[in-house]
Amino acid sequence: MSPLNPYNTGPHHTAPAAFQWTHGVSNGKELHEATGACPECGCVMTKRYTTGQYTQPKGGFLGRRKGPGPQPFSTLCQCTSLHTDRPEGVQVGCGARITIASWLDGASQ
Ligand SMILES: [Zn+2]
Ligand SMILES: [Zn+2]
């Protein structure tokens, strides 16, 4: 896979990828950041969650989460590399929907 892959919304990686989680506090809110390589395009990306904001970013089928749990997180790729054919208005990602293992599953502490 190359960072120059064209944007493609087809791939959906359901096998949870082990990302590196960092935890902190931002503006009084608990902040969780997952950093790792997108399994589709291979670019390193960071996905950021704050407490109370566990919604899926549009089109998600899991709906709102009550909070962090052992369930993996589903997200669209957030890489900042340039992928050709990226639709207008879309700033990041290769189009793939990927799954990130939760920091609570013991595999990505
Ligand atoms: Zn990607
Ligand atoms: Zn990428």
Automatic annotation (TrEMBL):
Q: What is this protein called?
A: Uncharacterized protein
**Annotated organism of origin:** Streptomyces umbrinus
